[in-house]
Request: fold
Amino acid sequence: MSDRISEVQSQALEAINNASDLNALQEVRNTYLSKKGLIPALMKEMKDLPKEEKPAFGQKVNVCKQEVSEALDKKQQELEVAATALKLEKEKIDITLPGDSIRIGTSHPLMLIQKEVEDLFLGMGYKIAEGPEVEQDYYNFELANIPQDHPARDMQDTFYIDPNTLLRTHTTAMQMRELEKAHGQTPIKLICPGKVYRRDDDDATHSHQFMQCEGLVVGEHVTLADLKGTLEFLANKMFGEGRQIRFRPSYFPFTEPSVEVDVSCPFCNGKGCNVCKGSGWIEILGAGMVHPHVLEMNGFDPDKCSGFAFGVGLERVAMLKYGINDIRNFYINDARFLKMFDRFD
Ligand code: PHE
Reply:
């Protein structure tokens, strides 16, 4: 009888040994240890034995059961470790493979120019002012010395929203807001960059939307020479050292005197080329001394203070600086065009 026990035990151990995965092992466990399994069946045979053999037999079956169950547990653990290792191997990530590259946008060329101008003026102690693009006629025109029937209104074809509300035609509107806010207190030293709108037909050099940056300085003894020095500094920083500027008389209702400002051509150094149309000069901005009437309307005493103002078109600066020949490129947003500016970022 005890041979039977040994036989069952060695068969069980062999089956355990041969089980190649967890399912197979579970089957072995069922075959030998479940209620109707072979080892409990041996136990049941005990009742047919003579009384004196029962204890030894029972003990042997118990030992057999314990050894088989220990072997099962041990094997189970081994198979589980192997299964985890296999899973890890299968799901292994090769971290040396190059990743998918994510395309990152670049700064818009106009933003690059705006930032450059802002940094320059911040360095000279100017502050940066902001204002609304949807503006009141009052700030865009009235306070800037352009009353209702003034012919200068025709210079800037305006998008009106209602008779008193418009899309600002120049950043001068922000200057007027700042002058009003100052309540006659000087000094004022600020620049106001921003989008402006005019009813222009779009072509290579005109756009119904464009960007300006205006500067305004008001204080005691501010002169045209201060304006010239400031603009010379700007021209040298934006277009390279050695630039000269010249003033030509002009007209703006909010400045007196008013000037048109040319910079010596950065492409031919003033000798004459096709960019400057042979003249050696390129017009870059309008400027002048703040009109005494504008100072007065905004609560300043023109006998005690004076000021200069200038306004530069940022597209024009960007076109000259980066050699762009069609203003529409700034607004079409062709990624191939925009991508070219990542090296300036
Ligand atoms: N506002 C003028 C324009 O839009 C530019 C300018 C600003 C001229 C300040 C003189 C002084 O053309």
Observations:
- The chain is about 40% helix and 20% strand.
- The pocket of phenylalanine is lined by residues 170, 172, 214, 252, 255, 286-288, 309-311 (CB under 6 Å).
- The first helix runs from residue 2 to 18.
- The first strand starts at residue 127 and ends at 128.
